[in-house]
C-alpha cells in the first residue's frame, strides 16, 4: 500500500476534481505531443515509399507534402467546427453515434480504442529508436527500454492529469525549439550556399516507374503525420473555461506548428537528398548533416525521443475518456467508469498500459510495421465524425450552415479518400482492421445485451416479486467434534431456523457407527446425517443431499443455508497445510446450487 | 472430468484396496527397476573418475568393482534383516525414528524425500540419453522427451499400483534378458579369442598419478549403482501375504541379478578397453563392440532406455508412501494422506511428477551432474537405518542377535564410509545436501508445530468453551434498490435477527439525501446507514463501520453477520462485466474482521 502511495501519491477526494483542469499552454503540450511528434516519422514514411522506385523520385515528396498540408488545413478547420458544435467533448464516437447512429458510432469507437493502444506502442517504440540511433549499444535492450517507458507513463497518468501535464510541457516545447533551430540553420545553410544543390534531383525530373498508385501510397504514408490532430476535440472538458474557445485556439496553434515543422523536415530531407536508412532516422540524418554529431545533434535526438515517448501520453488522455463514454453506454465493462484514488480513470489507464506492453513485446519493438494500421485506424473515425457533423448541419441548418457544411464535407471526403488509399495501396498492412473491427463491434453488442438482460432481471418494477421465505433449513457439514463445529452449531442455533442438519461424510464404513455414537453423546438434539462416501469425495454426496433437502424445502418456501466453517490461519503459508475443502465446497455450491452459503471463520490464534 | 476418466480410469471404492497387492514376480519388476537400471550408469561413473588419470588406470575398475560387490552383499544382508524386523514397512524414516529418535528420522526422511525426486529426474534423463544415443537427431528435443515420460509415468501411477506393475514387468525382464545376452556373447567372444587382449592394460599395471583419493572417489561413484536396493524394504505392505518372506526372497533375487549384471558390465568394459564418451554410454559402446550396430544393439539400447525410465517408477512407489508416513506424523501437509480416485496417494504422485519436471527443465536434462548428490542422499539414510537396527538389536537382544548385530554394523560402517568418501572426494557436487537437508528438517518442525497449535485450539476438552451467542446483528451493504437487495433483505428478515442494518456507500455527496429518501419510501422499517466515501473506496468505510458495530455487539455477546449479495452470471466471461466488489469485500472481511459472512447468490437467468 505504501509503495502505491509513493508511486502515485495520496488519494484525492472527488471534490478536488475541478483543480485538475488545463490552461492553454499546458493543453498544447499535453494534447499536441502526438500530432507534433508525427513529424518525426511522417516524412520518413513518404521517402520509404519513394525509395522503392529510385532516389531520383524523392522530389515527389514536395508535391506530396503540399497535399498533406492541404489535408491538414481541411482537418483543422473541420475539427474547429466540431469543437464548437460539441463543447462537452466531440470524440468521433459521440459525434458519429449522435448523427449517424449507434453502429457507425461503435465502428468509430472501436477503431479509436484500438488506435490509442497502437499510439502508445508505436510512439514509445519510435522514441526508443531515436535513443538507440544515438546510442547503438542500447539497441539490443530496445524492448525492455520501451516497456519501462510505458510503465513510467502509466504511473504518471495514475498520478493525474495536471501533474503529468507539467512534466510534459517542457519536452514538447523543447522539441519545437529544437526543430525550429534545425530548420532555421538548415535553411540558412542552403540560402548561404553551404549545401550542394546536386544532392537532390530538381522538382519535375522525370522518373521511370513512377505511378499514380505509388504517389497515392506515398501520400497515404505521409498523412500518418496527421494522426493525433483529433486529440484536442476529444478533450474539451479538460480545458479551463471557456473551454471551447480555449480548445479552438489551442487547435489552431497546434495546426500552425505542425504545418511549419512538417514542411521544414520534408524540404530539408529533399534538399539534402536524404534516403531512409534502417538504423538512422531521417530527422537524425538531417541533424547530423546540419550540425555534425555534436551537442546540438544530441539535443535534437534527445528531444525527439522524449516527445515521441510523451506522444504516447495522448493515448493515455484519450483512451480512458473514450472508455468512460463506451462504458456509460454499457458497451464495455462498467469498471471503466470508476475513478481511482487520484481521480484518473485508473482501469482505463492500466488496461492501456498493459495492452501496449503486450504489443511492444509481441512485435519485439519493431512497431514501424504497425504505422499504416495505426493511420487507417485514425482516418476511419475521422471520416465518420466529419460525416456526422455534415448530417448535423443538414438536419439543424443553423445560421451560416452552408460554409460549415462545405468545410466538413471537404474534410470527410479527404479522410475517406485517405482511408481508401490505405486499403488500395497498403492492403497487406491494414487488413487486420477488417478482422478486429467487426470483432470488437460484435463484442460491444454482446456486452450491451448482457447488461440489458441483467438490468431487466434486477429492476423491481418489471419483475416478479421475490419468492417469500417462510422458514429456514440449515445444513452444517462436520468433519469431527471440534471447537469449530461447536462454534458453527451455536451460530446456527442462534438464527433459530426450523431445522438444523449436521452432515458427516466418512470414507470408511467403520467410521459411521463410531461417529454417530460420539455425536449422539455430544449433541443428541441436533440431527446428524451420515453420508458414506466409498469414492472418497465430499462434494458429490453432499451435493446430492443438498439437492434432496432443497427440493423439499422449496415446496414450503423454505430457504436452505449451508454453513461452512473455515480456518483462517495466522500466516499465509499455513493455508497450504489445510485441505482446501471449504473453498472448493463453497465455489461448487455457489455456482451449481441455489443455496445460501454462510462462512463461519475460525481465526487461528497461533 | 471425462478427460480425467480417460487418463486414469474409473474411481475405485476404498474397499477395493486389497486387490492391488503384488506377487513376487511383479514386485521384482516394480521394485528392482531402480537398482537394476543403475548398472546402466554405475560402471560408467567409475571409468569417468579413472579416465582423469589415464586410460591405463582402467584396470582399477576390477578391484573397485569387487569393492562395490562387497558393499552390495553387506547391504542386501542388512536389508534382509530389516524386512523381518519391520514387516509393516521398514523405510529409513520409520527405522531411524523408532530407534534413534525423531531428529535422525527426519534427516533420513528428508533425505529420501528429495532423493526420490532426484531418482525420477536422473533416471528419466538417463533413459532419454539412451534413446538419443541411438537416434542422435532427437538430441535437441531431450528435455521435452524427458518431460513427456515423467507425465506418462505420473498418469500410470495415478491409475494405480497393479496396472503399472503389469506394464512394468515386461521391460524389466526384457532388460535382464538383453544384458544377460550381451554379457554371455561378450564372454564367449573373449573365451574364443575373438577379442584382442591388447585393448586393455593388465590388472596390476603401475599407473603414474594414481592415488588413494582417486580410488575412493571411483569407488564412491561406482556405488551409485547400488541406489535403489532399499526400495523393497520400504514396500513390504504392498506384497501378498506372507509379505516379509516374499519380500526377503525378492530382495535376494534382486541382489543376485544386480551382482551379475554389474560384474559383467564392469568386466566387459575393462576387457574391451572402453573409455567414457560424452555422446555414447558405456553400455551402448559394449553393445556396439559385441554385436555391431544391428537389431540386437537397438534391442539392448531400447530395453536400457525403457528400464531407466521405469526406474523412475521406484520413486513413484516410494515417495507417496514416505509422504504418508511423514504426513501422519504431521511433518508435511495432511493432504498427502488422502487417497485419490484410484486409491493411489495422488497428491504425493502429482507433487513428485511436478518437482522432477522442474528439476529436468532447470538442468536442461543434464542430470548426470546430479548423480553424486543423488547417491549421497541414498547413503545417508542407509547409514541411519542400519545404525537404527544396530540399536534395536542392542536394546532388545533377541535370540541370535550377535550375528545380526555384526551384519548390520558392517552395513552401517560401509554406508557411513561411502557417505564420507562422497563428501571428501566430491564435495563440489554434494555440498547442496548441507543446505537443503537442514532447511527441510526445519520446515518439518515448523509444520509440526503449526499442526500441534491448531490441534490445541480445536480440541474441545482442552480449550475454553465457545463464546455464547445471545443475539444477531445483520449488516447488508446495498448498492441500489433492486431485486438482489430485496431478496437479501427477505432472507435477513427470515433469520429474525435482533437488528438489520442496510449500509449504503455513495461516492457523491448529492446521492446521500436522494437515496435515503428513496429507501424510506421503499423499506421504512429497515434502518439505513449512509457512509459517504469521498475517496471512492467501499472497503475502508465499511470496514470501519463493521468495527464499530462489532465492538458494541461483542459487549452483549451478539454475533455480527455481513450479508453479501453476489451475482452468478450464466456464462464465465460475464464475470468480467461486473465489479468484483463482492469478492474483494468477502476476502477482506474474512481475513481481517471477526464477522460471519453470508453469500446470497443471485443466479442471473440470461
Automatic annotation (TrEMBL), chains A, B:
Location of this chain's protein in the cell: Membrane
Domain of life of the native organism: Bacteria
Residues of the signal peptide: none
Q: Which residues cross the membrane?
A: 57-79, 100-123, 143-161, 168-190, 210-229, 250-275, 295-324, 345-365, 371-393, 405-424, 430-447
Major subcellular site: membrane
This one is known as: Amino acid permease
UniProt KW keywords = Membrane, Transmembrane, Transmembrane helix
Describe its membrane topology: Multi-pass membrane protein
| Key word Transmembrane helix present | yes
Taxonomic source organism: Paenibacillus woosongensis
Amino acid at each position: 500500500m505504501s509503495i502505491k502511495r509513493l508511486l502515485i501519491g495520496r488519494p484525492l477526494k472527488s471534490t478536488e476534481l475541478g483543480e485538475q483542469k488545463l490552461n492553454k499552454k499546458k493543453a498544447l503540450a499535453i494534447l499536441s505531443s502526438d500530432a507534433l511528434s508525427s513529424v518525426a516519422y511522417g516524412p520518413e514514411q513518404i521517402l520509404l515509399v519513394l525509395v522503392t522506385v529510385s532516389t531520383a523520385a524523392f522530389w515527389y515528396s514536395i508535391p506530396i507534402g503540399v497535399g498533406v498540408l492541404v489535408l491538414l488545413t481541411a482537418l483543422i478547420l473541420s475539427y474547429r467546427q466540431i469543437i464548437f458544435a460539441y463543447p462537452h467533448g466531440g470524440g468521433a464516437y459521440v459525434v458519429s453515434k449522435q448523427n449517424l447512429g449507434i453502429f457507425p458510432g461503435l465502428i468509430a469507437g472501436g477503431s479509436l480504442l484500438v488506435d490509442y493502444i497502437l499510439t502508445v506502442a508505436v510512439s514509445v517504440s519510435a522514441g526508443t529508436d531515436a535513443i538507440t540511433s544515438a546510442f547503438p549499444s542500447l539497441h539490443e535492450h530496445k524492448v525492455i527500454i520501451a516497456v519501462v517507458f510505458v510503465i513510467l507513463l502509466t504511473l504518471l497518468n495514475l498520478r493525474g492529469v495536471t501533474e503529468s501535464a507539467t512534466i510534459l510541457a517542457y519536452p514538447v516545447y523543447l522539441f519545437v525549439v529544437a526543430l525550429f533551430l534545425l530548420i532555421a540553420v538548415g535553411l540558412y545553410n542552403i540560402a548561404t550556399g553551404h549545401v550542394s544543390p546536386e544532392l537532390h534531383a530538381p522538382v519535375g525530373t522525370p522518373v521511370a516507374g513512377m505511378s499514380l498508385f505509388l504517389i497515392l501510397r506515398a501520400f497515404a504514408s505521409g498523412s500518418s503525420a496527421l494522426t493525433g490532430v483529433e486529440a484536442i476535440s476529444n478533450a474539451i472538458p479538460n480545458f479551463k473555461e471557456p473551454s471551447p474557445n480555449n480548445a479552438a485556439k489551442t487547435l489552431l496553434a497546434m495546426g500552425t506548428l505542425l504545418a511549419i515543422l512538417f514542411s521544414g523536415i520534408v524540404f530539408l530531407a529533399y534538399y539534402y537528398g536524404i534516403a531512409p536508412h534502417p538504423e538512422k532516422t531521417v530527422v537524425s540524418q538531417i541533424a547530423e548533416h546540419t550540425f555534425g554529431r555534436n551537442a546540438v545533434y544530441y539535443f535534437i535526438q534527445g528531444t525527439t525521443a522524449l516527445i515521441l515517448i510523451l506522444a504516447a501520453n495522448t493515448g493515455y488522455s484519450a483512451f480512458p475518456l473514450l472508455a468512460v463514454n463506451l462504458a456509460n453506454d454499457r458497451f464495455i465493462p462498467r469498471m471503466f467508469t470508476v475513478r481511482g484514488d487520484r481521480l484518473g480513470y485508473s482501469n482505463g489507464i492500466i488496461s492501456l498500459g498493459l495492452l501496449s506492453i503486450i504489443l511492444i513485446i509481441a512485435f519485439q519493438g519493431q512497431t514501424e510495421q504497425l504505422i499504416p494500421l495505426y493511420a487507417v485506424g485514425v482516418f476511419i473515425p475521422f471520416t465518420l465524425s466529419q460525416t456526422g457533423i455534415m448530417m448535423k448541419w443538414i438536419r439543424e441548418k443553423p445560421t451560416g450552415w452552408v460554409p460549415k457544411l462545405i468545410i466538413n464535407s471537404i474534410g470527410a471526403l479527404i479522410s475517406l479518400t485517405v482511408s481508401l488509399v490505405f486499403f488500395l495501396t497498403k492492403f497487406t498492412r491494414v487488413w487486420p482492421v477488417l478482422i478486429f473491427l467487426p470483432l470488437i463491434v460484435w463484442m460491444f453488442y454482446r456486452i450491451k445485451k448482457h447488461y440489458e438482460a441483467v438490468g431487466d432481471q434486477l429492476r423491481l418494477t418489471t419483475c416478479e416479486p421475490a419468492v417469500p421465505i417462510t422458514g429456514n433449513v440449515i445444513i452444517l457439514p462436520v468433519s469431527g467434534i471440534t471447537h469449530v463445529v461447536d462454534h458453527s452449531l451455536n451460530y446456527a442455533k442462534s438464527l433459530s431456523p426450523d431445522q438444523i442438519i449436521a452432515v458427516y461424510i466418512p470414507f470408511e464404513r467403520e467410521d459411521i457407527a463410531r461417529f454417530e455414537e460420539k455425536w449422539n453423546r455430544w449433541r443428541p438434539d441436533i440431527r446428524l446425517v451420515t453420508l458414506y462416501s466409498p469414492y472418497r469425495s465430499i462434494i458429490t454426496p453432499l451435493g446430492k443431499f443438498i439437492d434432496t433437502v432443497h427440493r423439499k424445502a422449496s415446496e414450503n418456501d423454505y430457504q436452505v443455508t449451508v454453513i461452512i466453517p473455515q480456518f483462517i490461519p495466522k500466516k499465509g503459508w499455513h493455508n497450504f497445510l489445510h485441505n482446501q475443502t471449504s473453498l472448493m465446497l463453497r465455489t461448487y455450491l455457489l455456482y451449481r446450487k441455489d443455496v445460501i452459503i454462510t462462512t463461519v471463520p475460525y481465526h487461528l490464534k497461533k
